[in-house]
Amino acid sequence: MYEPNAMARSGASTYARVGLETGVMSASPHQLITLLFNGVKTAISMARHHMLSGEIVAKGKAISKAINIIDNGLKTSFEAPAGDAAGAALVANLLALYDYIGQRLLLANLRNDPALLDEAERLLETVSSAWLEVDPQLSQPARQPANGPMSTRFSIGA
User: I need a surface site. Which of 35, 80, 84, 105 has the fewest CB within 10 A?
Assistant: First the structure.
């Protein structure tokens, strides 16, 4: 049976997926990690919504998605050699924090406890905001055009 709404949803879903895939393909490594943080936050928000709505299966799927992004995205994003001892300690601390967040998410699922989702989200927000502060693109000075700042002016009637 023809359902125009189903086709529109399918088309919109495909369009959104292609847009995301295109964004991922052209993203810098820093932007990819930012996308992972955004994905975890979205999954936790969806888990909270499903938890409050009593949608147990959907809640479990959303929490599983958040844990998957942490375990297979954020935790695997570190390069093997962390540089000096301070870098190695930072990596070890972040990995331990990600493990803790994953445990909080599992408990939130088991106990149906939104406060545990809130805790996980706050911890991720702290790391995410620090990550945004070290964006290499923000630390680079703005480029001037080849002919200097005046070359960006337009001429009317030449």
Answer: 80
Domain that holds residue 41: 22-134
Q: Is residue 103 included in any domain, yes or no?
A: yes
- Rounded Cα distance, 19 and 2, in Å: 26
CA distance 18 to 24: 10
Tens-digit pLDDT profile for residues 6-36: 555 566 555 545 555 555 566 777 888 999 9
- Give pTM, 2 decimals: 0.71
- CB neighbour list of residue 44: distance below 8 Å, 6 or more residues apart: 62, 63, 66, 105, 117, 120, 121, 124
Is residue 46 a contact partner of residue 69, using CB atoms and an 8 Å limit? no
> Residue 126 sits in a domain of what CATH number?
1.20.120.340
In a domain, 125, yes or no: yes
Q: What is the DSSP string of 41-88?
A: HHHHHHHHHHHHHT-HHHHHHHHHHHHHHIIIIIGGGS-S---SHHHH
Domain count of the fold of the chain: 1
User: Who's near 73: CB < 8 A, 6+ residues apart?
Assistant: 36, 39
